[in-house]
Design brief:
The chain has one domain. Helix content is 93%, strand content 0%. It contains 1 helix and no strands. The chain is rod-shaped and about 215 Å long. The N and C termini lie far apart (220 Å).
């Protein structure tokens, strides 16, 4: 077994003066690179955490949106139902008003017919009353004329008997 150093040994003075600064620079660069990579790993971890938070926020927002959508649909259904009920009420009110108008028109016609009948009867009554008054006056005149003739006759009979 042959133990020999194929590489010549390193002179420590020469290493410190020539190679050490290069190795130090290289080590500093490696340290900076490692720091950058470590920062990149931290950034990745932060990004993953942010994504998880964003995903949770998105799911919460979607759940809230579904709840709002369901609430809006329920409200719209309630409004639609109320509007239909109002429309039905309006139709019923219009139908009731039309029926009331027909009934009012029928009553007005009946009242008008009664007024016409009453007016006709009143005119006939007035004419009959006028006829009665005329006949009463004629009768009174005839009675007066008859009494005058009776008196004249009685006066004549008294004059003859006396």
């Amino acid at each position: 077994m042959d133990i020999s150093n194929e590489n010549p040994s390193v002179d420590p003075i020469q290493y410190i003066t020539k190679q050490l600064p290069k190795d130090l620079v290289q080590m500093l660069q490696l340290r900076d690179e490692l720091a950058k990579r470590q920062g990149a790993l931290t950034a990745v971890e932060d990004a993953v955490a942010d994504r998880a938070k964003a995903k949770a926020a998105l799911e919460a927002a979607q759940a809230e949106a579904l709840a709002v959508r369901a609430d809006a649909k329920r409200t719209a259904d309630e409004i639609k139902t109320a509007a239909q009920a109002d429309a039905d009420d309006a139709k019923r009110m219009v139908a009731d008003a039309m029926a009331a108008n027909k009934e009012l028109a029928a009553r007005e016609k009946a009242v008008s017919d009664r007024e016409s009948t009453v007016a006709t009867r009143e005119a006939a009554q007035t004419k009959a009353q006028a006829d009665i008054e005329q006949k009463r006056a004629d009768l009174a005149a005839q009675v007066a004329a008859h009494e005058a003739r009776v008196k004249a006759f009685q006066d004549k009979v008294a004059a003859l008997s006396a």
